[in-house]
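Handout, tutorial session.
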Amino acid sequence: MRTSFYSLLAVFFFISIAGQAQKKYPFIKSGGSMFDVPEAEPIADKQMKYKVLYEISKGADKPDSVNATLDKLARLVNLHLSAGIPRQNLEVVAIVHFLGTPLILSDEAYQKKFGMPNPNTALINELTANGVKIYICGQSLYMRKMEKEPRNPNIKVTLSAMLLMTTLQSKGYVMVIP
């Protein structure tokens, strides 16, 4: 009797899981989970050129976790590409500054500072391999005394976040501040 109760409970558990929407990682596999939303109205313009400037100024909740704002950047890419925007029509530039600065460290430098490899490395590498340009604010590097720290080679340095933001917004980039 007890065995059949547990069997029945297991069946209901698996049915409930099967009925729930599943997160997926369609293009960026290291982060940026999303859900299919079949009832969503199609609003993406597949002919339009999307120019996005994305700000990462928040730090991770804990040193051993991926920066949540970086993960949302991956979601932005996954959502646009899943909506049918051709990759060549999606231009994304991210600027890292303020409390987000440590995410740019190489695994070795992060290990030295936090006692573990950088949990953001795989996501940074995958984003940049998929055309996302990531910059670190030079002012933040110097203010945080990290200018000499080894960093991920996929991240470029700019004079300042403010200069990059005003320049790209003047060129038609839409600012996203998660």
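The second record follows below. Compare its token runs with those of the first.
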Amino acid sequence: MKSNKFLDAKGFACPMPVVRTKKAMEDLNSGEILEVHATDKGSKSDLTAWAKSGGHTVVQDAEEDGVFKFWIKKA
């Protein structure tokens, strides 16, 4: 999936993937997509909940070799 910005949050534990995602989203315009890669197992539930609470949409997510990948569309 094509994204407008990429965030590498691998190696960070909760809450840093969410904190870094929130900061990265500030640079995007509404409708643009942020791709996030994280290794923290809690990222799946944390980022999904954070996106929903902010009105953003997780367009796609995947897991590959222990890396959780998210494509989040800014509200």
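Points raised in discussion: The chain has a mean pLDDT of 97.
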